[in-house]
TrEMBL record:
<protein>
    <recommendedName>
        <fullName>Citrate synthase</fullName>
    </recommendedName>
</protein>
<dbReference type="GO" id="GO:0005829">
    <property type="term" value="C:cytosol"/>
</dbReference>
<comment type="similarity">
    <text>Belongs to the citrate synthase family.</text>
</comment>
<dbReference type="GO" id="GO:0006099">
    <property type="term" value="P:tricarboxylic acid cycle"/>
</dbReference>
<feature type="active site">
    <location>
        <position position="268"/>
    </location>
</feature>
<dbReference type="GO" id="GO:0005975">
    <property type="term" value="P:carbohydrate metabolic process"/>
</dbReference>
<dbReference type="InterPro" id="IPR016143">
    <property type="entry name" value="Citrate_synth-like_sm_a-sub"/>
</dbReference>
<comment type="pathway">
    <text>Carbohydrate metabolism; tricarboxylic acid cycle.</text>
</comment>
<keyword id="KW-0808">Transferase</keyword>
<dbReference type="Pfam" id="PF00285">
    <property type="entry name" value="Citrate_synt"/>
</dbReference>
<dbReference type="GO" id="GO:0036440">
    <property type="term" value="F:citrate synthase activity"/>
</dbReference>
<dbReference type="InterPro" id="IPR002020">
    <property type="entry name" value="Citrate_synthase"/>
</dbReference>
<dbReference type="InterPro" id="IPR016142">
    <property type="entry name" value="Citrate_synth-like_lrg_a-sub"/>
</dbReference>
<feature type="active site">
    <location>
        <position position="321"/>
    </location>
</feature>
<dbReference type="InterPro" id="IPR024176">
    <property type="entry name" value="Citrate_synthase_bac-typ"/>
</dbReference>
<dbReference type="InterPro" id="IPR019810">
    <property type="entry name" value="Citrate_synthase_AS"/>
</dbReference>
<dbReference type="InterPro" id="IPR036969">
    <property type="entry name" value="Citrate_synthase_sf"/>
</dbReference>
């Protein structure tokens, strides 16, 4: 008897594919959380290392545990010596145009150099070790690729700096101000995880095969690189540049919609209210101040009004990418590194999902409906 197929909505919308204790997004409420904690509240009150600990161990650390965890992960930032020649070759071969593709290549080499084994063959401690290594080394790789591509020497890792300040230091070679480091830290915390998005689901599919942590993270990076997923913060800021004077925002938006273009930085697949990440980042941007933040607020207002007029019945408000680009620009992150900054945080979330999925022994194997020509069973015998 033929198997009974269960219909799924396009894009698997509203399909539950797994159980998770990592977090969830409640789009109708404009709320998302990591474990039992509001993600926005964590961003406002905790350090990135404390939230990273939460994703690894399922609870927030004590002060002593947080200090020990931060000290340990800071020792994992150094790129293996065997990988350095590959990193330089990749950096000089087009990493500036495709930073996430370059990261995938180098992380694959790192996974090989570190001899990462399939999660199927490892216990929880060994899987956790591999996940921590790759998450800790990702910022070092990304910054080195960027600087070599710019004709600069990579900045050696500094184990005395926390993650957010260290990221800015790796990019610029200068210790950031406390204000800028905290702004980036809040952004990183707010973007660690966001439900079963495309890249997270991809990571879990690969982990379900029993593959190594590096393979699952590299697969997630491939999904993440798409402009409909992680690749929009710089495009949203490009739109702000194209608009220029906020007085042009309404006319620019009407013209873009007339051309059938999507307005980058607005709308979300899940939220039916304001994106809480955008609200957080808006407050950070306005707190940092300056002309760019003022212009962004005015443009957001006018674009939202036009979208309400032209897209009746749809809530198309500013999403995380709109103000993410503003905050990163304010803090001196090069525009080409906006999406890679997103990856610095999201690799922690992917790692948590990989570890959770690895505890299951069931491969993710959905079905597809064949809609091609009717097969002829005897065709190969004629």
């Amino acid at each position: 008897m033929a198997d009974t197929l269960i219909e799924a909505a396009p894009g698997l919308a509203n399909i539950v594919a797994a159980d998770t204790a990592i977090g969830d997004v409640r789009g109708d409420e404009g709320f998302y959380h990591y474990g039992p904690y509001s993600a926005v509240e964590l961003a406002a009150t905790r350090t990135f290392e404390e939230v990273w600990f939460l994703f690894v161990h399922g609870r927030l650390p004590s002060p002593d545990e947080a200090a020990a965890f931060a000290a340990h992960t800071a020792t994992l930032r150094t790129i293996p010596a065997d990988v350095a020649p590959i990193l330089r070759m990749v950096a000089l071969g087009g990493a500036a145009e495709h930073p996430l593709a370059a990261l995938r290549t180098v992380l694959s080499a790192v996974a090989t150099a570190l001899d990462l084994r399939p999660v199927w063959d490892l216990d929880d401690d060994a899987r956790r070790r591999d996940a921590l290594l790759l998450a800790a080394i990702t910022p070092t790789v990304l910054a080195a690729l960027h600087r070599i591509g710019q004709g600069l020497d990579p900045v050696p890792p500094d184990p005395t700096l926390p993650v957010a300040a260290h990221w800015l230091y790796l990019l610029t070679g200068r210790r950031p101000t406390a204000e800028h480091a905290r702004a980036i830290e809040q952004y990183l915390i707010a973007t660690v995880d966001h439900g079963f998005n495309a890249s997270t689901f991809t990571a879990r599919v690969v982990a379900s095969t029993g593959a190594d942590v590096g393979s699952a993270i590299c697969a997630a990076l491939g999904a993440f690189s798409g402009p409909l997923h992680g690749g929009a913060p710089d495009r949203a800021l490009d739109a702000l540049d194209a608009i220029g004077d906020p007085a042009n925002a309404a006319a620019w938006t009407h013209a873009a919609l007339d051309r059938g273009e999507r307005i980058m930085g607005f709308g979300h697949a899940v939220y039916r209210t304001a994106d809480p990440r955008a609200e957080l980042l808006k407050s950070i941007a306005t707190g940092l101040g300056g002309e760019l933040a003022d212009r962004a607020v005015r443009v957001e207002r006018d674009v939202t009004e036009v979208l309400a007029q032209r897209r009746h019945g749809r809530e198309l408000r500013a999403n995380v990418e709109f103000y993410a680009g503003v905050v990163m620009e304010q803090c001196g992150v090069p525009r080409a590194m906006f999406t890679p900054t997103f990856a610095v945080s999201r690799v922690v979330g992917w790692s948590a999902h990989i570890l959770e999925q690895a505890r299951s022994r069931k491969i993710i194997r959905p079905r597809a409906r064949y809609v091609g020509p009717e097969p002829v069973r005897s065709a190969l015998r004629e």
